């Protein structure tokens, strides 16, 4: 019997992989480095400050576990909207279990327990919100080689607007890894050229993963006017 679900997922993966290849190849390396990376993510005070926060937080379990305001700061740095302090406080109280699930790669349980249909205070009532972007960025923080920090503009850029956030997160992460493993030379060239421009060492290249680099590139392509 044909596994229709897997065939459907495979088709989505192929579409994402092709979109990556169409937008990132040897012919566009100079433009990607200068515009999509250097101008969009390194120049400018706010961009540089965010990159400093990012590299300080990546895989920093000590800061995560000891800070009493990790999720408030995380929300502010990533400009995550529509999240109230009561929800953030609940995450703080559960942070050990949350980290355990991320480390064990039990992402379905994590997502459905805390980020899908999260109860958020809006005016005088609770509303349910799917906090997929928050979930993706948190998972990426502690598994930066495996999962991307997906947001809605990138999800839409890859033609997955109507797919669930969780499925899109898994597919794009998978195809980032797939493409990176098949195009090592292109990524090395991009990194070498970016390092040459990045005189102030805003990017911590020893911590820069393939998925982070691809996230930076495709964030720029998905947000051309920002």
Descriptive account of the structure:
The chain is globular. A two-stranded antiparallel sheet has the order 1-2. The chain has helices spanning 4-23, 29-42, 45-57, 61-66, 70-77, 85-93, 95-103, 107-115, 132-142, 152-157, 165-182, 184-197, 210-222, and strands at 118-122, 125-129. Helix 1 crosses helix 11 (165-182). The chain has 226 residues and is mainly α. The chain folds into two domains: 1-57 and 147-226, no CATH class; 59-143. The protein has 13 helices and two strands.
Quick overview of this protein structure:
The protein has helices at residues 4-23, 29-42, 45-57, 61-66, 70-77, 85-93, 95-103, 107-115, 132-142, 152-157, 165-182, 184-197, 210-222, and strands at residues 118-122, 125-129. It is mainly α. It folds into two domains: 1-57 and 147-226, no CATH class; 59-143.
State the end-to-end distance. 47 Å
**Low-pLDDT residue intervals, each spanning 5 or more residues:** none
Structural class: mainly alpha
Determine the number of helices (DSSP H or I, runs of at least 4 residues). 13
Succession of helices and strands: HHHHHHHHEEHHHHH
The profile of the biggest β sheet is: 2 strands, antiparallel
Tell me roughly what share of residues is in helical segments.
55-70%
Mean pLDDT: 94
In the sheet with the most strands, the strands line up as 1-2
Q: What is the total domain count?
A: 2
The total count of strands amounts to 2
